[in-house]
Design a protein that fits this description.
mainly alpha, Four Helix Bundle (Hemerythrin (Met), subunit A), two-stranded antiparallel ribbon, 7 helices, DinB-like, DinB/YfiT-like, DinB-like domain-containing protein
Length: 187
Amino acid sequence: MDIFRLIQDIKTHLKLSFDEVDRWFEKDKETLNFQPSNGGWTVQQILEHIYLTNFYLLILIEKGSKKAMRNYLELDLNSEIKNYSFDNKKFEKVGKHGAFEWIRPEHMEPKGELRLNEIRNLIARQYHQCLDYLDLMKNGEGLLCKTTMTVNGLGKINVYEYIYFLSLHAQRHLTQMKKNESETIKN
């Protein structure tokens, strides 16, 4: 496994996802506040949900990165890299809205307590946090810690995969926001 290629691919994925999320903050108020006919969230609520989910995932990513860096002193990183293969197939449904049942915890539901510009700034900071963790674990150390991810039965995933999951989660909701926008246009 070329670990440097994996890290670069995750950085690229993050940039594309976060750039696309950021463009939604430029939408007009009608698009941002449109209530879809299925009773789902408005675009602004989805943006807040992305921030909240990132917030909680980043807590796990931070803990995982610290543990991975500690494990670097005890485990054979070269062996881990040699024996690792990234299973993209395992993750592909995560980025697709409606691909599977996803029951989110209540603390990840939007409450409407943040202004749009606050959400935008917080999400931008979260993007940079992800990049900082990838820079910290630039030699493959992120493979040295695995944490269980219950969503869609992913099981134990490493820190890089958690960061990739975070990026895929944003993509999942980009599709949802596009559906909202297309319904706004029809009305």
